[in-house]
Amino acid sequence: MTDYLAQKYLRPRKIPNTACSGCGLGQLHKAVVKAIDELGLGIHDVVWGTSIGCTGRQTFATWRGDCFAGTHGRVYAMATGLRLGLALEKKIILTVGDGDAFGIGLHHLLNAARRNVAMTVVVGDNLGYQSTGGQYSWSTPQGAVTDSSPYGMREPNWIQDGRDILAMLREAGATFLARHTSLEGESLAQTVKQALVNNGFSLIHVPFPCVTNFGGTALGSREPVEMFRWMMGGIGELWKTGVYYDRSNSRPEFTELVRSIPTAPLGGLPHG
Fold first, then answer.
1. Selecting from 2.30.30.40, 3.40.30.10, 2.40.10.220, 3.40.50.970, what CATH number does the domain 25-247 have?
2. Could you report the per-residue pLDDT of 58-82, keeping only the tens digit for each?
3. Which residue, among 2, 122, 104, has the nearest Cα to 60 in the 3D structure?
């Protein structure tokens, strides 16, 4: 990340971060902060949250402004409550992992999309449970050798064989959905900007390289260049990148909807 962005937005004690050498989280993090900067937002304009895993640990706590962390899969419910209490112009950004978003937190994520809560969810997908040793997850490519699939991952996942987690989120009610790998830095930053100006639920799925676990086990190499080449080859095949769905500002945002509900008189519901 450039010195300008780091000095303006990040906590000095968090620079540099403690991610593994070659990890793509720096690329993802830079794209999000670059989007914030290009929109002219300051540290007081954004509340940054996360849940569990590598993605959260390396991103949310670096923010110089307000930030928070939730337990497994619950950050979307927490952000919904926070959204109701915040000024409408405040932005909520969540950087979460694939296990948190597409696994244990999927029910809460779908409900945030259903309600069209104004938040931007950036799913940093390192293709498995890498912070706990490299087990396969909901988005591990089929056939990949991992710590928990020594003969190759054979389960159906959320991104192959005609399934796409973004399609489920679209049906749930999300109003902006996109996918980029972290290697597509400039395109990712511009898409994050689009997501942030949507007054509703936005999500960007961002596969990124995990050199240590995925590269070492699935690819047989911990050389970043080998991992990067493999990921670039997956664009268009494993991952169709770009804006998947954009109906920004087409549905009532949850907070505005709730605030428009007339207050019932004390003592119970009004009589029909």
1. 3.40.50.970
2. 888 899 999 999 988 999 999 999 9
3. 122
